[in-house]
Specification:
The chain has a single domain, classed as Response regulator (Rossmann fold). The strands form two sheets. It has a five-stranded parallel sheet with strand order 2-1-3-4-6, sandwiched between helices. It is an alpha/beta fold.
C-alpha cells in the first residue's frame, strides 16, 4: 500500500500528509545551504535547495512552499530580487521569507528594497535562534512580513 502512495502522490502531497512543512533554502554557498538544510531536516522539515535565484524561482513555481530562506548576495539574482518576484506571484506572495546575509541585519533592514521579509539574519547566525525564527514563522498564517522599502 505504501508503495502505491509513493508512486501515485507527489512528494509535496506526501509531506503535507505527514505533517512536514516544505522549506526552500537558497544560497550560492553550498556549505551554508547544507548547514541550513541539515538543521531543518533534523527538525522534521522537507527541504529543497537552490544555488541561485533563477533555480529558486523555478522551484517556487513548481512546488508548494511553506518558508523560503534567501541569501541576499547571489551572483545571478540577489535575494531581494527573488523576494520581489515571489511577492509578485499570488501563489508565493504569502510565503514567509528569511533573508540571510554576511552584512549586518540592521544594515539590511535599512537598505532600500522592493520586497518583504519576515526576518533578516546576519551570517554567521546562531542555529538555535535560526530554528526559533523558523518555528515562529511556520506556526501559522499570522506571521508578519516586514516591508523593507
Amino acid at each position: 500500500m505504501a508503495e502505491n502512495l509513493h508512486t501515485r502522490w507527489a512528494p509535496e502531497t506526501l509531506s503535507a500528509l505527514a505533517g512536514q512543512r516544505t522549506v526552500l533554502v537558497v544560497d550560492d554557498e553550498q556549505s551554508v545551504r547544507e548547514l541550513i538544510a541539515v538543521n531543518l531536516e533534523l527538525d522534521g522539515h522537507r527541504v529543497l535547495q537552490a544555488a541561485c535565484g533563477a533555480a529558486a524561482l523555478a522551484i517556487a513555481a513548481a512546488q508548494h512552499l511553506d518558508l523560503v530562506t534567501l541569501d541576499v548576495m547571489m551572483p545571478d539574482l540577489d535575494g531581494w530580487e527573488v523576494a520581489a518576484r515571489l511577492d509578485a506571484d499570488d501563489r508565493t506572495a504569502v510565503v514567509p521569507r528569511i533573508m540571510v546575509s554576511g552584512r549586518s541585519p540592521s544594515a539590511l533592514a535599512r537598505a532600500p528594497g522592493r520586497a518583504r521579509a519576515a526576518a533578516v539574519l546576519g551570517k554567521p547566525f546562531d542555529l538555535a535562534e535560526f530554528g526559533a525564527v523558523v518555528e515562529r514563522l511556520l506556526a501559522g498564517p499570522d506571521h508578519e512580513l516586514a516591508d523593507t522599502a
